[in-house]
Amino acid sequence: MVHVREMDEADIEAVSTIRVRGWQAAYAGIVPQTYLDAMTVEGDAGQRRQWFSQPGRKSRDLVALGDRDPVGWICFGSYRGEMPDLERVGEVYALYISPDLIGQGIGRTLLGEAHAQMKGAGFETSALWVLCDNQRARRFYERAGYQADGAAQDDVYDEITLTELRCHRVL
Length: 171
Prior knowledge:
- By secondary structure, the chain is an alpha+beta fold.
- Strands 1-2-3-4-5-7-6 form a seven-stranded mixed β-sheet.
- It starts with a strand and ends with a strand.
- It is globular.
- It is built from five helices and seven strands, in the order E-H-H-H-E-E-E-H-E-H-E-E.
- Residues 2-163 form the N-acetyltransferase domain.
């Protein structure tokens, strides 16, 4: 059983480890290996420390704790774009679980808590972006009630263009 709480500054190193190892596991064979190999926990933690200390930061970060340390992380807030015909839209910016613990319900727990907090903040819909080729994540989000809505955007990783699909669900 995991416990979910607000992330604090002491969690940055653990969250960066989860994020970098999560990218390297989830996106192997999708994102160019050169890009994945260049990712470091130290570099990510430096960026995260700078971002975490910004005054007025509007996003929320939650961690799932295993025995003592974080084993999962989710970041969410207001939707960063526009969704015609929908008002009060929140967005899941990132969700990563320690790769060796995937499939144990940690992601479901974090996502459920993020949904509850978004709804409590007045959001009616949650949106997220997922790489088109990341079938495992797409299945996970579909089971959580998300559906692709036809919007797509391209991201470039080491000169390789990958497409992300936008998905959303009612909270």
